[in-house]
Structure prediction request, 277 residues.
Amino acid sequence: MLIKNKMIYPFLYLFFLLYLAGCQGIGPISSGEAADELIYLAPGDQVQIDTGENVYVDSDGMLRGIAGFSVSAANQKLRDVMQALQRHTPFETYKILAYGQRYIEVGGKVGYNGRLPYPLHEDWSIMNLLMSIEGIQASSETRQYLLIRKAWQSSQANLFIRGESIPMMEGMGGDDLLIFPGDTILFPGSENVVYVFGSVGTPVCFTFEESIPPKLLEAIDKAGGFLKSANLENIQVYRMLKKENKSIFYLQNQKDQAFPLQSWDIVFVPFILPKNK
Prediction:
């Protein structure tokens, strides 16, 4: 009898710990799969809380739908965003009504170029991406890449990363930099490359001969020209140098059309922001 009691004590202690954790609260719970709580949100996602109210991630990456509440949600885990919402509007459970589009753009000296679906319940890294698209072409002399990401917390702000993926050898190496829906990742190889995006006809990545560097005007032409919404007084050129350094040039279309571009330059044409009424 004494032996049985000794065996029961650990189970009673474990039950007590679980009960205590439940009393302390662990935040709102998804009514779907447990993995849903860990997905990264993207524009277009819609969630319903048990009060009957619906919230959604808008095109600016903000969670909307509750009066007096908004929070940056794109590229944030669903669980964390729901916990922030619960502090404003008490609720117990939630469920996902719809998912927005999830994809990344890939280009350059890799096994696949174009739009690639982003896996819903996985955390993807540069290494995972390369494994899924058969890696970098063997003819490429370099494994450097350029990542362009929208900085959702700031209007018309972007994050640029110039990195290098180390080949996997016996389970070692690779690149564990996380990538998110909406990212653009370019693998230019040894070629000279310029990327143009923003308020232009079509975002474009093009190469050029080192002896004939393109001018700003030529780069804009390759992107299909300016849109009517383009801010021509604040064109930004990000010069991606090695060792995480970069220079930023703020240009005006009328006087800086002959500005010479260099390899790895990123040209961003901002949109004209609507005036507040």
